[in-house]
Specification:
The chain is mainly beta. It has no helices and 11 strands.
Length: 121
C-alpha cells in the first residue's frame, strides 16, 4: 500500500515562495507518476503538475507554468513542488498523488492528507 505524506505548507505573502515535499513509501512507488493537485474552498480539486520517477518528464497546468517546479529525489522517494511568485489565487490545500500519468483526478489511486498553503494579498 503506497503511503504519501506532504509537508511544507504555510502562510506566505503574495510574491513569496514555498517548497512542498511529498514522502512516498510502501508498494511499487517508482512505477507510478507523481502529481500535485490543489483544492480551494468551494472549488473542485485541480491538477497542478506531474512528474515521472523514471526520466523525470514533467507537465504543468497553465496557471502555474513558469512559477512552479516539480522535481523528485529518487534515492529518498520524495517529490517536491517549488512554488515561486505566489499569488492569492494559489491559496488551497495541496495534495500529493500517485497514479497513472494524467491531469485527471480519477487517474490517481493514492493520495496524501494534504497541506494548506495560504497566500496573503
Amino acid at each position: 500500500q503506497v503511503q504519501l505524506v506532504e509537508s511544507g505548507g504555510g502562510l506566505v505573502q503574495a510574491g513569496g515562495s514555498l517548497r512542498l515535499s511529498c514522502a512516498a513509501s510502501g508498494g511499487p512507488v517508482t512505477s507510478f507518476t507523481m502529481a500535485w493537485f490543489r483544492q480551494a474552498p468551494g472549488k473542485e480539486r485541480e491538477f497542478v503538475a506531474h512528474i515521472s520517477w523514471r526520466g523525470g518528464s514533467t507537465y504543468y497546468a497553465d496557471s502555474v507554468k513558469g512559477r512552479f517546479t516539480i522535481s523528485r529525489d529518487n534515492a529518498k522517494n520524495t517529490v517536491f513542488l517549488q512554488m515561486n511568485s505566489l499569488k492569492y489565487e494559489d491559496t488551497a490545500v495541496y495534495y500529493c498523488a500517485a497514479g497513472l500519468r494524467s491531469d485527471l483526478v480519477n487517474r490517481y489511486n493514492y493520495w496524501g492528507q494534504g497541506t494548506q498553503v495560504t497566500v496573503s494579498s
